[in-house]
């Protein structure tokens, strides 16, 4: 469904060049949930933004559902984006529009007429169980509810692909579970190919079918989630092993003995 | 030891600070002056909003962080806007007399003041628009681009909607400063309440009348500010 072929993204700032995505190739099967994990600055967001060309790759190509997006002009690309939903860590909802109006916006941009817009936006809010919040402004919604509105906004145009950039990094663990449940249900029921970027292994373990590990812009390893439960399986790279162990290990040094006098 | 007091500034005819007869006598003139101030504001501010908004959107869009960066062209227009804004209002008023004559056919009176006021207000408001749009941050623009919005849709359906409360606040600030700018209208016979205060207070030493005019200006500024703040709050749904 999504083919990322030898994609590199090089940023030039003040004469300095920086390779944020380094020759990444990745095949994401139709209807699957692909996790992309890595530490901060690994290039995960840049790679995700390469898929809908919010960030045009410096080289390589991106093919979504048979269309080479990197070969399209601005206008054709804009139209293709109606088929690719996206959600963000900080939701990126419009504060001065209600939940329903926020959802309607993606339909408006996709060229859906006014009457259909209202109905389809309501249906999309219904999928994320927020029909009762249709007329609430985002300022009155919790983080989890905002992300659900954002999911409804992305879904309303019935996209083939859903891109998620740290969708649960700004909400608490219980809300994380609820948001992931919706993403998983949507994937199962609507068959939307989903890509989730995260730095949290428990998110990957909960929803992903496949996982790609990134480090310093490069894709260093890929495995199926099913592999994790196979006895004796261990990621090949050190970073992969570190990520799946998801506990924090510190080097705890012995406490310095306090002098009695300082306590008086 | 000279004791400069309000009483010391009173004219020989004995008008006291609150001589009601004198006030009653001048009431028609005060009404005319207020009318002139309203005329200046009601024409100049809407024109400035109408012309300054597209200019501000343009400045934002073409800036290096905008929707369609054109850094070189942006620098040129940016410098032009700064130049326009550098002119002290009094000098602008006189410098553009030929333009004023061309547009309204006269160089004196209220109509003649509206031209420099508007010309001064356009780049002023454009800066407000540019700043308000820039301050929104990239999140909503990024989301709109991901949804496949055109640049026009991003401006109309996203940026202007989100910036509306801030823009109302900017219009309020601009209106308040123009109430005092319009006082300089007297120089070209434009009238207005500020000019009235200067004529009676400064040239004729009728301090009481001047105070009355100033109180009217304070009331005007307060109402504009309170009204503007309320309106901005009504449109602001962040909380
Ligand atoms: N527009 C840009 N210009 C210059 N450098 C950039 C730009 N965008 C990203 N980078 C750099 O590219 C690198 C990768 O950034 P990216 O946001 O893709 O990382 P990430 O893996 O998503 O990290 P995080 O987990 O913190 O979100 C970072 O070092 C970042 O500073
Ligand atoms: Mg990121």
Automatic annotation (TrEMBL), chain A:
Pfam families, A to Z: ABC_tran
Molecular function in Gene Ontology: ATP binding; ATP hydrolysis activity
GO cellular component entries: plasma membrane
ABC transporter domain sequence ranges: 2-241
InterPro entries: AAA+_ATPase, ABC_transporter-like_ATP-bd, ABC_transporter-like_CS, MetN_ABC, MetN_ABC_transporter-like, P-loop_NTPase
GO biological process: amino acid transport
This protein's record includes keyword Membrane: yes
UniProt key word Ribonucleoprotein: no
Lineage top rank: taxon: Bacteria
Keywords: Amino-acid transport, ATP-binding, Cell membrane, Membrane, Nucleotide-binding, Translocase, Transport
Family: Belongs to the ABC transporter superfamily.
Quaternary structure annotation from Swiss-Prot or TrEMBL: Homodimer. Forms a membrane-associated complex with FtsX.
Its biological purpose: Part of the ABC transporter FtsEX involved in cellular division. Has ATPase activity.
Protein name per Swiss-Prot or TrEMBL: ABC transporter domain-containing protein
UniProtKB/TrEMBL annotation, chain B:
GO BP term, pick one: D-methionine transmembrane transport
Keyword list, A-Z: Cell membrane, Membrane, Transmembrane, Transmembrane helix, Transport
Cell compartments where the protein resides: Cell membrane
Residue ranges of every copy of the ABC transmembrane type-1 domain listed in the record: 34-226
Entry superkingdom: Bacteria
Mode of membrane association: Multi-pass membrane protein
Predominant place of localization: membrane
Gene3D superfamilies listed in its UniProt record: MetI-like
Keyword Cell membrane appears in the UniProt entry: yes
Xref: InterPro entries: AA_ABC_Transporter_Permease (IPR051322), MetI-like (IPR000515), MetI-like_sf (IPR035906)
Transmembrane segments: 33-59, 79-97, 103-126, 166-189, 209-232
CDD domains: TM_PBP2
GO cellular component entries: plasma membrane
Transmembrane helix in keyword set: yes
Record-linked Pfam families: BPD_transp_1
Family, similarity comment: Belongs to the binding-protein-dependent transport system permease family. CysTW subfamily.
Protein name: Methionine ABC transporter permease
Origin species: Zafaria cholistanensis
Lineage start: Bacteria, Bacillati, Actinomycetota, Actinomycetes, Micrococcales
């Amino acid at each position: 469904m999504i083919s990322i072929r030898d994609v590199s993204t090089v940023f030039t700032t003040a004469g300095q060049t920086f390779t944020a995505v380094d020759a990444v190739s990745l095949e994401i099967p139709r209807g699957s949930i692909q996790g992309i994990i890595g530490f901060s600055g690994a290039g995960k967001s840049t790679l995700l933004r390469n898929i809908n060309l919010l960030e045009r790759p410096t080289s390589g190509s991106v093919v979504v559902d048979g269309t080479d997006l990197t070969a399209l002009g601005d206008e054709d690309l804009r139209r293709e984006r109606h088929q690719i939903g996206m959600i963000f860590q900080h939701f990126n909802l419009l504060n001065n529009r209600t939940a329903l109006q926020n959802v309607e916006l993606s339909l408006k941009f996709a060229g859906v007429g006014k009457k259909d817009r209202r109905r389809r936006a309501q249906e999309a809010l219904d999928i994320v169980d927020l029909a009762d919040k249709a007329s609430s402004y985002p300022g009155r919604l919790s983080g989890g509810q905002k992300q659900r509105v954002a999911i409804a906004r992305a879904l309303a145009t019935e996209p083939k692909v859903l891109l998620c950039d740290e969708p649960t990094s700004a909400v608490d663990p219980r809300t994380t579970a609820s948001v992931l449940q919706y993403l998983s249900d949507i994937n199962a029921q609507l068959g939307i190919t989903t890509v989730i970027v995260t730095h949290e292994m428990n998110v990957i373990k909960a929803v992903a079918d496949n996982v790609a590990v990134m480090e310093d812009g490069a894709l260093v390893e890929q495995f199926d989630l099913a592999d994790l439960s196979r006895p004796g399986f261990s990621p090949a790279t050190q970073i992969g092993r570190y990520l799946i162990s998801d506990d924090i290990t510190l080097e705890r040094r012995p406490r310095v003995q306090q002098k009695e006098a300082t306590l008086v | 030891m000279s004791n400069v007091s309000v009483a010391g500034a009173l004219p020989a005819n004995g008008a006291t600070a609150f001589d009601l007869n004198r006030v009653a006598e001048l009431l028609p003139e005060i009404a005319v002056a207020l009318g002139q101030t309203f005329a200046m504001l009601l024409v100049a501010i809407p024109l400035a909003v109408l012309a300054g908004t597209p200019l501000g959107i343009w400045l934002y869009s073409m800036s290096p962080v905008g929707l369609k960066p054109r850094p070189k062209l942006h620098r040129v227009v940016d410098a032009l806007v700064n130049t326009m804004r550098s002119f002290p209002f009094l000098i602008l008023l006189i410098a553009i007399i030929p333009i004023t004559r061309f547009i309204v056919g006269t160089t004196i009176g209220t109509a003649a003041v509206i031209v420099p006021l508007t010309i001064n207000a356009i780049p002023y408001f454009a800066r407000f628009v540019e700043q308000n749009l820039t301050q929104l941050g990239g999140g909503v623009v990024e989301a709109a681009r991901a949804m496949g919005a055109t640049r026009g849709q991003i401006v109309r359906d996203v940026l202007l909607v989100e910036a509306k409360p801030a823009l109302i606040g900017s219009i309020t600030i601009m209106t308040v400063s123009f109430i005092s700018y319009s006082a300089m209208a007297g120089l070209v016979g434009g009238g207005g309440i500020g000019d009235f205060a200067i004529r009676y207070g400064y040239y004729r030493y009728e301090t009481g009348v001047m105070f009355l005019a100033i109180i009217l200006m304070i009331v005007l500024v307060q109402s504009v500010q309170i009204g503007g703040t309320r309106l901005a709050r009504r449109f602001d749904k962040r909380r």
